[in-house]
Amino acid sequence: SLHVYPVKGCAGVEVKRVELDRFGAAGDRRLMIVDERGSFVTQRQEPRMALIRCRVVPGGTLELEAPDTAPFVLRPVNAGKAKQVRVWDDQVEGIDQGDGVAAW
C-alpha cells in the first residue's frame, strides 16, 4: 500500500495515488513538530508521536487525533511567522502554525 505522512514522525495515511511536486510526494512530511529550541522532534524522543493520526480533509485541512485527547482541526498556512528550524544538521525556514496546535 501507499502512504503519506502529513506530519513528520506521526502516523501515516493510506492513499490510492500520490501527486508529485518539486519536493516529492505532495502533502508528505510538510509539517513537523518543533521544540522550544527550534529543533524538530522525532519518535526517538517522543514515541507517542506514532499514535497521532492525521486525516486529510478536502481543501487541505488536517484533522489530528491522539488517544485521550480531543481532536484538533488544523488549516495549515503557508505564510505567517517564519521560524528557523533545525532538521538534523540543516537549518530550514518553517512557518509557525499557531498557538492552538502548539497547545494541543
Biggest sheet, strands in spatial order? 5-6-7
Task: Please describe the biggest sheet, giving its number of strands, its sense, and whether it closes into a barrel.
Answer: 3 strands, antiparallel
Compressed to H and E, one letter per element, the order equals EEEEEEEEEH
Broad structural category = mainly beta
Uncertain segments of ≥5 residues (pLDDT<50)? none
Percent strand:
35-45%
How many β-strand stretches? Answer: 9
The N- to C-terminal Cα distance equals: 30 Å
Query: In which range does the helix fraction lie?
Result: under 10%
Integer-rounded radius of gyration: 14 Å
Form type: globular
| Count of alpha and pi helical runs | 1
Instruction: Estimate the mean pLDDT confidence.
Output: 95
Number of structural domains: 1
Short recap of the structure:
Helices cover about 5% and strands about 40% of the residues. It is mainly beta. It has one domain.
How would you describe this structure in keywords?
single chain; 104 residues; 3-stranded antiparallel sheet; two-stranded antiparallel sheet; 1 helix
